[in-house]
Design a protein that fits this description.
InterPro entries: ABC2_TM, ABC2_TM_bact-type, ABC_2_transport, Nod_factor_ABC_transporter. With about 240 residues, the chain is mainly alpha-helical. Helices cover about 75% and strands about 0% of the residues. It has one domain. Helix 7 runs antiparallel to helix 10. The radius of gyration is 18 Å and the shape is globular.
């Protein structure tokens, strides 16, 4: 049942044009553009090449796009059209409704990572082999954290409000949440706060793993904390209609 439900949810996401634009086309465009153009400030890059610096952050953006924004919007409109109410009347238990969406999000993130990784490799990306295991764990934790936040948002508000708010949060986290601008490039107080956001923790953790070959425990704990808190709140606030 879990496999079937997850396969349906993943297929619906992958064949939805707007979802595909958000989850794959925009991250690909940013990856290629920022790797080829002289846009990134040299103070952020240091001795790291542009593609090596930007790829971990684009992978974090892909997780944000699919697990949070896409998940929240899809859930909001599923509630509006009565999809969840009808599914709850089937043999699917309530925990499996959520688990199927989480597994589908993990599948989508895995596909995103493969596509983005292949394109980055053609652009000259050379990740640290020592950090690949940590990067995979970060992607899983990031998907769980952003997925829980997506369910929290999409399960509590009206579909129109979810659509607007999810896109606003996406833009804010992209520009000021530690993805395109490293926390070190921000004022010290702001940078410290950004590192505690799931976007900042995931982007910095991916950079530490794939560029420095490290095992970033701090960002992992931040993501696990967000996943736990948002998951508990989502179970209490999510509505079927």
């Amino acid at each position: 049942m879990l496999r079937t439900h997850a396969r349906v949810e993943a297929a619906l996401t992958l064949r939805h044009g707007e979802q595909l634009l958000l989850t794959l086309i925009i991250p690909l465009a940013l990856l290629i553009g920022l790797s080829l153009l002289d846009v990134l400030p040299a103070s952020q890059l240091g001795t790291t090449s542009k593609v090596d610096w930007i790829t971990p952050r684009i992978l974090a953006l892909a997780v944000l796009s699919s697990a949070f924004t896409g998940q929240a919007i899809a859930l909001g409109f599923d509630r509006r059209y009565g999809v969840l109410k009808r599914l709850s009347a089937t043999a699917l238990p309530s925990w499996l409704l959520v688990a199927g969406r989480v597994v589908a999000a993990l599948v989508v993130v895995a596909l995103q990572s493969v596509v983005l990784g292949v394109v980055a490799a053609f652009l000259g990306w050379s990740p640290s082999a020592a950090g690949l295991g940590a990067a995979i764990l970060l992607l899983v934790l990031g998907t769980l954290a952003f997925g829980a936040l997506g369910v929290l948002l999409g399960g509590a508000l009206r579909a129109e409000a979810v659509l607007a708010l999810a896109n606003v949060v996406w833009f804010v986290l992209l520009l000021a949440g530690g993805i395109l601008l490293a926390p070190s490039a921000l004022p010290s107080g702001v940078g410290a706060v950004v590192e505690l956001l799931p976007s900042g923790a995931l982007a910095e953790g991916m950079r530490a793993a794939l560029v420095g070959g490290q095992f970033p425990v701090g960002p992992m704990l931040v993501l696990a904390g967000w996943a736990a808190v948002a998951g508990v709140l989502a179970t209490r606030t999510t509505k079927l209609t």
